Structure of ATP-binding cassette, subfamily B:
Amino acid sequence: MRPENDLASRWTPPKRQPGGRNDVRRIMRLFRPYRGRLAFVGFLVGLSSLVSVASPFLLRAILDTAIPQGRTGLLALLALGMIATSVANGVFGVLQTLISTSVGQRVMHDLRTAVYERLQRMSLAFFTRTRTGEVQSRIANDIGGMQATVTSTATSLVSNLTAVIASVVAMVALDWRLTVVSLLLLPVFVWVARKVGRERKKITTERQKQMAAMSAIVTESLSVSGILLGRTMGRADSLTRDFAAESENLVDLEVRSNMQGRWRMAVIGIVMSAMPALLYWAAGLTSSHGGGITIGTLVAFVSLQQGMFRPTVSLLATGVQVQTSLALFQRIFEYLDLPVDITERPDAVTIEHPRGAIRFEDVDFAYDPDAEPTLRGIDLDVPAGGSLAVVGATGSGKSTLSYLVPRLYDVTGGRVTIDGTDVRDLSFDTLAATVGVVSQETYLFHASVAENLRFAKPEATDEEITAAARAAQIHDHIAALPDGYDTVVGERGYRFSGGEKQRLAIARTILRDPPVLILDEATSALDTRTEAAVQDAIDALSAGRTTITIAHRLSTIRDADQIVVLDEGRIVERGSHDELLAQGGRYAALIRRDTDLATAADSAATAA
């Protein structure tokens, strides 16, 4: 049977087919909401291309007409025209950059938000099998790596393509023979660029996986818990060596990614830079055979050809960049395509004033379809305001049982109801408002005490926060702090003791005021004195609420209305404390064990 706290195998994303037309179409759809602004960018690009093409024709007129004929007025006009084209291109370029960057950043925002929203909807099972660093890397590194592509590629593609087409048309208008010479090797260049792009795409996928691995190491080992564990275990040097090894692997991948195809692209650049010499040679041959080309035409043509050089190379580089970025998009699409196991039904039920009656009706649950069930045939009835305690050995399914009420997991058989309504039919807002959970692992944000408490009820007043803290018996301690409720708790609340964190968690739940309360071994890690203080706070929290307690120390559940004993996912005993003791079964054995441990601890303390 699978233990209730087993992390199982580490999650790996489902395999997807290599990127192709579907991924490209999907990427294009990301820009659909901004097509108006992109159309305006396209208009600016067209104007810029027309203005750029005009400049060589002005130059030809200067060389072939204005200067040879001594027409100074025409010369001044043509020169002013060339200056005006430069100014116009500068203005158009700034506007293009502003709009395209704005659109690109909006697309990045949409992607980040979509990934975060999808992850918020994933079941608890996903996060128990996925390293936190892997999730962070997808959002930060993968989406961040797409920034240049998303913010500039669309504009660059349209701008460069338009510039190349306009230049080719102008070159043909000047001399078709020189145009043929200029474009002779272009198909070869395109083939080389596509090949380089495919190679870089493969390396990029490896690089992003390596960055995710490094991010996981940083997240795990440089957290407060990681630092404490590393130092107390004397593993700081070992962790540093592990990180250095991962970083060394990343160095190799980064070098390979940047150098892949660099020589081939450099050869393209050299050939295109040498093209003017080939044009001069071709023009000379043409002239020697009677096909004269004027100096103005030749200079204008070379100017066009050199002007086309930059957008052509940029276009080829953009093609390489797009193929490389497909690897990043595929990693993001893997998260966006994750199946959401727990969803809210379109006709979800809302309960305005829930009473908190809980029923488990022949409930089965398994973490994996092929695994042995963790829970089998669970039938329980907890009336509104009643209390249920669940005990059993580690791995018996206690915590799993509690996870089904707030619907952190869905049952695989039977159903769990609140006030007669299947929890799968309830709206998420109703579930969150109805069920409060206080677990052994208390999580606090790196924020002030007040902000941590207000997470349960953002609109809570200072008076309500203070009242909740008093009920949880933590107000006096908070008030004694230099900054009071404005004190920053530190990462995961490490400025507070275990008992103080538990009472803060209880205060947070009191503030939310749910009618159903799940206590998942909330005092199991505390010493006796602290446990007593926390138990008083729990008693205040539990008053008048339906309470399900997952018990480790049995002394805390003697007064429960009903106690059930789980063994291998089945209920083997049920009854009150006195009834179960009288049966002399498993519960009685657990009580004797607790009594013996407490006696041994008292004897040890007395001896010390």
In short: The radius of gyration is 35 Å. The domain at 358-603 is CATH 3.40.50.300 (Rossmann fold).
